[in-house]
Amino acid sequence: MIWSTFVISTGLSLTLTPCVIALLRRGQVYDQPNERSSHSRPTPRGGGLATALAALIALAATWTGASGPAVALAFTATGFGIVGMMDDFHDLSANLRLIVQVVLGAAAAFLLLRGTDLSPLVHGLAMAAIVVWLMSFVNAFNFMDGIDGMSIAQSAVAGAAWAVLGWASGESFLLVAGLAQLGAAIGFAPFNVPVAKVFLGDVGSYFLGGWMGALVVLGLRAGLTPEAVLAPLGLYLLDTGTTLFWRIRSGHEWRRPHRYHVYQRLADHGWSHVRTAGFAAGIIALCALLGGLSESGSLTGRIIADIGLALTIIAYLDWPEKSRNEISVKPLPTGGDRTCDPRSPGDGSPDRLGGHRRRSESKPFRREG
What we know:
Helix 2 packs antiparallel against helix 7 (172-188) and helix 6 runs parallel beside helix 12 (273-292). Strands 1-2 form a two-stranded antiparallel ribbon. With 369 residues, it is mainly alpha-helical. It is globular and about 50 Å long. The protein has 13 helices and two strands; from the N terminus they run αββαααααααααααα. The protein has one domain.
């Protein structure tokens, strides 16, 4: 019964996505390309509604255990997803999004901690930490949703990793939720790769970010090691974190749109979106494997795996420096300066490879990536 979660989620995602695309086209909900975009033609945005419905229905149909984790997960992901959907249809101000995210994060933290036996002080600190974590990862996921297949790769690999981790550790809810996430991502993939017919939109990136952020909390609460739970998200977290740190340190206006993420620089160096997303998927899978080794019970093995995990992320962050010497990129004619990261020269042009960047990139406090 548990494994049917994957079948239901995949089938629903495959079936619902064309319906959502038709609705988006009818409502003229398109992502318009701009100078920072990685796509060259208007593309429907908001397809993540199909992935959200697929994951939620699959979870509701197959999970028969305690309702607490399911309610907390569904509330967190749905709440953030609704905020994203409102932003897809009606541009919300940065201040309003911030306020809503704080309120949602606090409500989600309450549900995620319900039933724990913590002192008032520790409970309050845990609540604050979860709010910061959820807001950080939801926005990091949103920032990284920048080329065809990238966030689908993250969602699919992380879902598979957590499903295996849940199966190996006996944490059935993590297994079911991971399978629901995996199926929703795979069902959406044919419409997003190799050239997107539809984008996840904020509804999809907010929903998946909230879903994964909540699963991390539930996994840690179940007693799993931090490496095992967090490693599948390491690439997204550190790509966003290091890019933001570098921009602030360099005196850049960190809220302004840019093309300094590792995956963007790889694309600007001539990598196709399929190659870039596939490369990221491989790194995410390797991180997940190394993180999972922390559950082996061997301290020596855990230390070695942690070192391997750190080296893997460092190699990913430095990869654009290697790739720029591998591929010669012919710049496109431009009417202004579109120079990419000065640390890794490239033409920095808006994508000629068929990927996407949201029309909302032109607004501050939106996507960093």
